[in-house]
Every structure is written in C-alpha cells, then in structure tokens.
C-alpha cells in the first residue's frame, strides 16, 4: 500500500468504527447490513458479511430471514482501518466468544485500533 496525504473525507471511506453501543436503523436486517456503501451489493456479499459476524444462522432462524424487521443499523463495509471501541464490554461471556471469533476473521489484513478495559480482550486480539 502506498501512503499519501489524504483529506478528511477521503480518509473516512477507509475507516469503520465499531463501538460498544449497538445502533440499528428501523428497517429490515438486509436494510441495516447494506446501509450506505453501494446500490450494487449482491446477496452473496450480504451473506458473507453476516457469516463473518456470526449472525447468518440467527438471521436464517427468523421467520422472515433477512427481511426481518428490526431497529437501528449495522453497516456493510470493507474498511482498511477498524476502530474497535469497547466492542465486547457489554456482552456476556458466550456472546463475547462469538464476537471475538468474528473479530478474528474481520481484523485479518486490516489496521486495527482497539480500545478496551479488559486485559483479556487485548491479549486475545494480540495473538492475531
């Protein structure tokens, strides 16, 4: 990767923030996953993202699958930089383990900046 000066707007397209407070837009699960980035997102891309986040099976267990109505948002992005702000701090240990597994996959090949109070969270990520 060649480094060159970027303007703020240009830089923001390479970064995704994942923080401890989940926010979803009112709409379907599909609407929430595909919010913002492009009109040309394929079904297989949506499934790939959901599988990487360990939520595909849960989504498919819902009566309406990806058309299940929910609130707030989750955004389909392919960032160069991930900012992880206490992403597991409000989770029970079972859910945290699933999120950690998903983060292992998502962080590969990306610059990741992690903010966490639990030493375990940082130690777990450092093995990547």
UniProtKB/TrEMBL annotation:
Alphabetical keyword list: Hydrolase
Cellular compartments per GO CC: plasma membrane
Keyword Hydrolase: yes
Keyword Ubl conjugation: no
MF-aspect GO terms: ATPase-coupled transmembrane transporter activity; hydrolase activity
Gene3D superfamilies reported for this sequence: P-loop containing nucleotide triphosphate hydrolases
Protein name per its UniProtKB record: P-loop containing nucleoside triphosphate hydrolase
Species in which this protein is naturally found: Parasponia andersonii (Sponia andersonii)
